Amino acid sequence: MKILYATVGAFALLFTAACGNDDTVLSETPATPETDTADMSVPAAPARNMYVLATGEIEASDLLGASVHDMADAEISVVEDIWLSADNADAMLILRDGGVAGVGGDLRLAAFDAATIVPDASKPGDEPTVIVRLTKDSLETLPAYKQATADDFRLASELMGKTVTINPGGESVRIHDLILAADGKTNFAVISPDLISMEQIVVDGDSIVLAQGDADGEVVLDLTATTLAEAPGYKRE
């Protein structure tokens, strides 16, 4: 092998000497252009459209704890919770008659669409005022409400803040709030697209269903990946 290398080396020297007077310039092989890594960046996801509350819509969180006034503007009760419409049953307001700081007193049911919900001008950004066509005495004639011993997910408070599963994907998300129509129907749910995101999006209220089978009785959100990706964003105040 050493002799072969010497022979090749000698031949190379002879070839160089023979071509020494040639004025021909050999062109170099063009270098491969460098790839611009900036062009390989992943395109940003398109910005979501933002949802704006329609006339008459209200967040359930704004109603919980709201003061209830009669037609003479005297406070007679507070909104303890919201009995959500389902199975052709109308939504109801659960009012606390008596008690202090949410403790004690009796819980009464009032038709949601029988109440007028107006902003409290003296407390901007605070809970609205609920005006009902009742007096303090007639409040006691409303049907009593007895809370179930286990969650049946008919109350707004049972859903708000709950971690639920997406069906059929299996991802976990959190329900932050409910957007209610003027008659109390759950128009939309305000959720996070995952458990770590600070973003909030709006999905159809009809997507809230009770699971059957292995997860019987648990609430799930019946949503596709496309629906989640295209859901409008929601800005909380």
Question: In words, what does this structure look like?
Answer:
The structure is a single chain. By secondary structure, the chain is of the alpha+beta class. Among the domains are: 82 residues, PRC-barrel domain (SH3 type barrels), CATH 2.30.30; 75 residues, SH3 type barrels, CATH 2.30.30. Helix content is 15%, strand content 28%. The protein has five helices and 13 strands. The strands form two sheets. Strands 1, 8, 9, 10, 11, 12 and 13 form a seven-stranded mixed β-sheet that branches. Strands 5-4-3-2-7-6 form a six-stranded mixed β-sheet, with no helix packed on it.
Beta-strand residue fraction: 25-35%
Order of helices and strands: HEHEEEEEEHHEEEEEEH
CATH superfamily of the domain at 58-139: PRC-barrel domain
CATH level 3 topology of the domain at 58-139:
SH3 type barrels
Average pLDDT works out at 79
Secondary structure tally: strands: 13
Alpha-carbon distance between the two ends: 83 Å
CATH class label of the domain at 58-139: Mainly Beta
Low-confidence stretches: 1-19
Q: What structural class do you assign from the helix and strand content?
A: alpha+beta
What characterizes the major β-sheet?
7 strands, mixed
Number of continuous helical runs: 5
Give the SSE map.
Elements: H1 2-18, E1 58-59, H2 60-63, E2 67-69, E3 75-83, E4 92-97, E5 106-111, E6 115-118, E7 129-132, H3 136-139, H4 156-159, E8 163-167, E9 172-180, E10 186-192, E11 201-204, E12 208-210, E13 219-222, H5 225-230
Parallel strand pairs: 2-7, 8-13
Antiparallel strand pairs: 1-9, 2-3, 3-4, 4-5, 6-7, 8-9, 9-10, 10-11, 12-13
